[in-house]
Write a structure and sequence with these properties.
- It comes from Notodromas monacha.
- InterPro entries: Gfo/Idh/MocA-like_OxRdtase_N, Gfo/Idh/MocA_Oxidoreductases, NAD(P)-bd_dom_sf.
- Helices cover 36% and strands 16% of the residues.
- It folds into five domains: 126 residues, NAD(P)-binding Rossmann-like Domain (Rossmann fold); 67 residues, no CATH class; 70 residues, NAD(P)-binding Rossmann-like Domain (Rossmann fold), CATH 3.40.50.720; 196 residues, Dihydrodipicolinate Reductase, domain 2 (2-Layer Sandwich); 64 residues, no CATH class.
- It contains 19 helices and 18 strands.
- By secondary structure, it is of the alpha/beta class.
């Protein structure tokens, strides 16, 4: 083997042609070589059971339709009649390596085989024997042998610069979240359906040691390990039982359905767990107070996921206001345009459609907008709240003539802006990759279907059997589709919040601060805000802070990162003040949200005098 780590170019008389079995992450990685060096390597066929992945891969490599197969066996049949490629790249699931490797070796295909070779000793030997028998080249994707660090270490060891190698220590720190993602929740979590963790994750680490110790034969092997810290529970109560006996973690993240926040929050607080609690805190005033009292009693840190407090736009607006650059703030306007199709998806057909099974729309969708106003007006106490709103449109009396109970059987579906067929089915037909993303990913788990099920048929079945195919005028929804909230503060200033379903924009919040010396505002998703100075009459664009480069936590414009980072920092330093969405502040804005809903339902202005328990 050439141990020189620096890559050297080489030339080929003609491109090597390849079949790719498995168009997942590893299959895509290996075939990228063909895109970068088309004069050396060309992908001419793909076998992939997932339609969306197959179509995307096919387009990427310009593969003709007759060479895009649903299974490796279909591809094998054609290859038996006509050996139309030189090599096969096998990147199927771990337990499906042996059969295609042996079969294609028998057809004289050279093989690039994703690790592990196979999941049993017998299958590894069977691949070995098939490759030897048919005199083909096999490369197993032990990529770490090519790592410059690995090559350099072997060169130094082989050159005797270290003397005799007495011991090698190799650490593979998988990463807590990576292990949870792949080996607790993911494809490699269960030995019966995949293989054991050492083979799945570390067979190339074992290979590295064999690579470094190539001059010596291994004579003894021992291993110790267990499932110690990753426990998967069917319910939070099961987890609580174990945590009661052994407090095996520092914090608990509660992201259960809205109506199931209070009980676990109170229970884990009593065990001294710090808590990151998804908004809303709870769905009743009483439960919010109960959480508050449990957190105070047990002296733990609570952060409610009011992520918008961390939005660069929100932080910049507060800094300008607090610095007096706008003079006295007279009024704040905040608009939450939910998006017409988003509202239909979540609040008409979806999980938040019904107050009895979830909660009212203002709490579910806009408690962090109310919290934003409280955040901006932190120096003043809110004294009055009024609100108006209703379910205006999504009800049976507005159902078009001739409309059916479901979109798939509806004669007027093509004229309806809320068509489930347009939103979930037609969009995926145009771009199959959308099936893996929200909102289509919510309507059903396509992985639950047999791999032979066509993507379109899978979505059709979801729409036929589930709630997301229903006519928006025939659902059991009862939450507001439009609502306005007005706030008055003890300095005489006011603020208004509008939540509206009927918009093109989807959750692209817009706000304007009206001050006595200036005006400032813009959209949360933009790179800057507009600031007008009344004294100079000049407008300036104020740039906004960006999310750290490289983070994968880009939700809510990157504010998810800032939220979790502040919580982890607060717990690490045992300093609740580092959490801007802490106990008292979160309770305060939740109470204002309940006050707004009380005003809407009772048709009156709710004040600190009439309802003191709703104002802190």
């Amino acid at each position: 083997m050439d141990l020189v780590p620096k890559w050297k170019d080489w030339s080929a008389e003609k491109p090597i042609t390849a079949i790719v079995l498995g168009a997942g992450q590893r299959g895509k990685v290996h075939s990228t070589y063909a895109l970068e060096f088309p004069d050396k390597f060309k992908v001419v066929a793909v076998a992939e059971p997932r339609k969306a992945s197959r179509i995307h891969f096919q387009a990427l490599h310009n593969i003709p339709d007759h060479r895009a197969y649903k299974s490796w066996r279909e591809c094998l049949q054609d290859a038996t009649q006509d050996k139309f490629a030189d090599v096969v790249i096998i990147a199927t699931p771990d337990q499906e390596h042996a059969q295609p490797a042996i079969a294609f070796a028998s057809l004289k295909f050279h093989i690039l085989l994703e690790k592990p070779m196979a999941t049993t000793v017998e299958d590894c030997w069977a691949i070995h024997d098939a490759v030897k028998k048919n005199d083909v080249i096999l490369a197993v994707c032990h990529v770490l042998r090519h790592a410059p660090a690995a090559v350099t270490l072997r060169r130094f060891a082989d050159a005797g610069k270290l003397g005799e190698i007495s011991n090698i220590q190799l650490l593979e720190p998988v990463g807590h979240w990576h292990f949870a993602h792949s080996f607790v929740r993911g494809n490699w979590r269960n030995e019966a359906s995949s293989t054991f963790a050492l083979l799945a994750k570390c067979c190339h680490d074992v290979d590295l040691i064999a690579f470094w110790k190539h001059a010596n034969k291994c004579t003894k092997v021992s291993s110790f390990g267990n499932l110690q810290h990753f426990n998967a529970y069917k319910s939070w109560r099961e987890c609580l039982q174990d945590a009661t006996r052994d407090k095996f973690a520092d914090v608990v993240i509660i992201a259960t359905p809205d109506q199931e926040h209070a009980q676990p929050a109170i229970a884990f607080a009593s065990l001294k767990f710090h808590i990151l609690l998804e908004k809303p805190m709870a769905t009743t005033v009483e439960d919010c107070w109960a959480i508050h009292d449990a957190v105070k009693k047990n002296d733990v840190i609570l952060a409610v996921c009011h992520v918008l407090r961390h939005a660069p736009a929100a932080v910049t607006l507060r800094r300008f206001a607090d610095a007096g650059k706008l003079g006295d703030i007279s009024n704040i306007q905040l608009l939450e345009p939910v998006g017409h199709w988003h509202f239909a998806h979540s609040f008409v057909r979806g999980n938040w459609r019904n107050e009895a099974s979830s909660t009212f729309a203002l709490l579910a969708k806009c408690c962090h907008d109310v919290d934003l106003i409280a955040f901006w007006k932190h120096a003043n106490k809110c004294t009055k709240v009024s609100s108006f709103g209703n379910l205006q449109h999504f009800k049976n009396k507005n159902k078009p003539a001739g409309a059916s109970a479901t979109c798939l059987t509806c004669s007027v579906e093509n004229t309806c802006p809320y068509s489930a067929k347009k939103l979930y089915l037609d969009s995926v037909e145009k771009d199959p990759s959308l099936a893996e993303h929200w909102p289509v990913s919510v309507i059903c788990n396509l992985e639950d279907f047999d791999k032979s099920v066509d993507l379109k048929q899978g979505i059709l079945k979801c729409l036929e059997d589930g709630p997301y195919g229903r006519c928006v005028y025939d659902c059991d929804n009862d939450v507001c589709d439009n609502q306005v909230v007005n706030f008055e503060f003890d300095d005489g200033s006011t603020a208004s919040l509008t939540m509206i379903a009927f918009s093109e924009a989807v959750c692209e919040r817009r706000t304007t601060f009206f001050g006595t010396h200036g005006e400032m505002g813009g959209k949360f998703d933009q790179d800057s805000l507009e600031y007008l100075d009344f004294v100079t009459n000049k407008t300036e664009l104020i740039p906004l802070e960006k999310v750290p480069v490289g983070t994968k936590m880009k939700g809510h414009g990157g504010t998810d990162f800032f939220l979790v980072d502040s919580f982890v920092r607060a717990v690490s330093k045992q300093d609740p003040s580092l959490v801007s969405t802490g106990l008292e502040e979160s309770l305060k804005s939740h109470l204002l949200t309940f006050a707004a809903e009380l005003s809407r339902k009772e048709g009156r202005v709710v004040t600190a005098e009439t309802d003191p328990k709703l104002f802190l």
